[in-house]
Amino acid sequence: MSEGKPGQGVGARLLRKEDSRHLHGRGSFVPDMILPGQREVAFFRSPVAHARITALRRPAGSEGRIFFREDMPEVKAIVAPSSLPSFKLSEQHPLAHGKVRFVGEPIACCVGRTRAEAEDLAEQVEVDFEELPALVDAHKARLDRANRIHEEWDDNLYLTLSLDNGFEAESKKADVVVKREIGLSRQSMNPLEGKGTLAVWDDRANQLVLYSSSQTPHLLRIGIARFLGLPEEKLRVIAPDVGGGFGYKCIVFPEDLCVAWLALRYRKPFRYIEDRREHLVAGANSRQHHYNLTAYASKEGRLLALDAEVTIDGGAYSNWPFTIGLEPGQATGNLPGPYDFRGYRVKTYCVATNKPGFLPYRGVARTGVCFAMELMIDAIARAVDKDPYQVRLMNLVRPEQMPYDNVARKHYDSGDYPRALQMAREQLDVEKWRERQKRGEPDGRIIGLGFASYCEQSAHGTSVFAAWGLPMTPGYDQAAVKLTAGGGLEVRIGVQSHGQGMETTMAQLAHQVLGIDVARVQVVHGDTGTTPFSTGTYASRSIVMSGGAVLNACKELIPRFVRIGAHLMKSPEAECRFEGGKVVGPAGGVSLADIAEAWYMRPERLPDNVDRQGLEASLAFKPKRDTGAFSYASHAVAVAVDPETGQVEILDYVVVEDCGTLVNPAVVEHQAIGGIAQGIGTALYEEQQYDANGQPNASTLADYLIPGPTEIPNIRIFHLESPSPYTELGIKGMGEGGAIAPPAVIFNAVNNALDPLGVEVRETPLTPEKLLAAIEAAKAMPKREAA
Amino acid sequence: MKAAAFDYLRPRDVGEALAALRTADAKAIAGGQSLGPMLNLRLARPKLLVDVSRIPALKQIEDEGDAWRIGAAVTHAELEDRPLAGCEPLAKVARFVAYRAVRNRGTVGGSLAHADPAADWPLVCATLGATVRVIGASGKREVEADAFMTAAFTTQLGDDEIVESIRVPKLGAGARWGYYKFCRKTGEFPQAAAALLLDPQRRIARLFAGALDRPPQPLDTVSQALAEHGGASADMVNAALARVAPGLGPAARKLRATAVQRAIAHA
Predict the structure, then answer these.
(1) Helix/strand/coil for A304
(2) What pLDDT, on a 0 to 100 scale, did the predictor assign at position A786?
(3) What is the rounded distance in angstroms from the CA atom of residue B247 to the CA atom of residue B212?
(4) Which residue from A354, A610, A694, A753 has the fewest beta carbons nearer than 10 Å?
(5) Distance of CA A654 to the CA centre of its chain
(6) Taking the alpha carbons of B93, B96, B99, B100 in that order, is the dihedral positive or negative?
(7) Measured at the alpha carbon of residue A252, what is the angle toward residues A246 and A255, in degrees to the nearest 5?
(8) Does the distance separating the beta carbons of A700 and B41 come in below 8 Å?
(9) Does A294 touch chain B (CB under 8 A)?
(10) How are beta strands A235-238 and A207-212 bridged, if at all?
(11) Does residue B182 sit at the A interface (CB-CB below 8 Å)?
């Protein structure tokens, strides 16, 4: 843990400004909001995975309270165009249209004075289905041309990506070939607060106001306006307090469109709040990847080439605006990870299935690719009979190679990847654990140690997103800053902070430039009516993009301050400068409060040549190079595996991470811890299973396990600081990283523990039952299979 | 996920509660820790909820000399916070029922009446030789705890009956108690559980396996061996489990055997 720099600027370990209201229960989330005459919305959702709707009925008299697709013809279907060559488009209607494609798909929208009343109505909807075979297995769906999710397609493939860079030549040099099949389960993201949208027509503003639990209010505004056919200026989106996003809240949902349409149609407030059952069933939309990998290595364990077939279970629909292309794009490009090798051949299939449409979840494809790659590194080490740590170390990109263009044409900007791994090993105290491992535990448990390394593309911009073919590419982020009368500062940013601590870190950036007490810096975010445009908070981008804009906008004010300050001191402007939060010159100093007083209240004190842009500045920013600032980390763990129960306990968890210049070490650490908690969920607990009919097995948190406080170990975090050459102050994004490595590092540790038993596990989540079954199967085998 | 409409009654005494339960589609609720979610999921749709959790007669804990009588509406937390001399296992078990927020509301009688085979009290009460006192229109009757649950989520309780109290005999001097449950995470229902009571003074040796798809099952061959020889082989445990829980896969079998072995080791 870093102690942090003194003061309040960049590097200071400040407590978060936003925590007080949350700890006191004074936050304001969509579910807290009640407007006069508000109606609650519930959805009748598909009970089957794949069927044609042959009839749909509602009780007489329920018109105006129960709505079907045909009632809202002016609402367009959600279609997310992609410029990727093989991409097939899906059409997602606000309510099912002719067909249902996953259990939980909204069919009817029901309105009541209370949610219970709305649910009562939902029970009265009657639907006749002609059931179709459910496509549950992505491998089978990929080959099935007869039974199609989207009948206008000729198969069930959203897209196929492939890349070959030097594979043939490099693979030939190999002494060792290692093959593995690796898989991840389907997960839902489970933010504490689910989706929530409250729409109301504001007569005074002549505008539809949508309060929505969103990470991306400006994007949501564009999307909703587009699909509703509403001029954008007639829509204001406000994201109030948001209880976690993780990618779930950066897209346009059918439910949003229904609620917005109702408010437009009836000019009353309508609200929809997703409950946990809906979230688990209709929101099981991430992580499910499958890998067939073949690694080609030298006998020393040097990775030379990788051949990969990746299958992504894309679910039923492609989302707007990120599209289903984001996940396969990231998987294809990021699989090589932080390693230096020159032969790579990959084919990635993204397959439509009868499950909720895949969405980008914290880490996006990188949790999967890191899991796959890191298990392969350990498998190579076992194949060449070496310590996985040594094999990992020998293959990492070295600092003298930076900036490094990898085999998938990613441009790694900076860092010392081996150093992070070495530090992680030191901090874990490997010798101590190895000793204990040899000695054996008194309770019969088996100790295992694991490592995992990754690098994380953050704050990637236009060129990267353009290559993924999205209908939206992020460009400039804007920030507006304003010195207030009295010398405080308002900072307006178009991103949304929902746990990232940006009300604090953005204030720290402003303080860094202007020296204003962070308590006097008011950060305004999450409202299209009051903030400048940004595509929003996703892709670990906000502190680099929005933060860069804040830094530059603050700098923009300085010459204006100096001109006014110099005039107030009656000193020549050239002899004055801005320093320590004041304008200083030969005659002393002038505070920002005095400058603000002159501009707002005492204009007679201003010089004639005062800058007419006043004390506010709005500025757009993007980094010098938009291929991304790559954060990286190595995680190291010690686990105890109970071979009698299959339980895995994490005894120590070490992170050495480098996100460039640290803005606030506490915020960085807490982001890492939150991400790791989710990663532990991926590794050990979380899974939505489907039966052959596409019925999800888990509909409550009793069946879908997420780790709680007692399942999260004490996590020890250490920092390196390699500033990015491309960003303001060398800051890199890091919000997702924590969620990337835990499955890899935990599985590697378990496999290390169970290596003597001949057990190697490769499929998330590692449930006790799965682990016990693997151990029992290994016991039943006469002899260990060669790797 | 909101409950369908229902009426709610909080009777002052058992008589009023029983009268209310005789109306159509009435259901008793105590702590509501299982029934609450079932209401919200609309899996349970009673017309009337009869809240028995505040009836004073159901909240008593009495010393009957050779046993403790525990009112059905006594919460897990109350048992956790008040160790009962001679029935020390109750507080130890209560401490690990779900998590504290659930323990503050959930009741012993409610847990027995709900009859989740993975719950703690059905297993523990059977092993301790407890007796369940049921009260209904036709009066009171006593049911042995190991016979009270007839199948998963099914008991001997009639629609118009409630659990009044549970009588738990005090342990003899030198009695040994072993309890083990395997939960994937803190507060979850276990995937395997076992309880053992060896009470030589009272000539009792009882071992039950819990968290099956049926009521807790006695493993008498094992408990006899323990009482007579002070030990039981792994094969004996496996064979006993195979009799009471046939058809388990290797992992599930192993986990249940581990629970039994650990309950024995803890005693």
Answers:
(1) strand
(2) 43
(3) 12
(4) A610
(5) 22
(6) positive
(7) 105
(8) yes
(9) no
(10) parallel
(11) yes
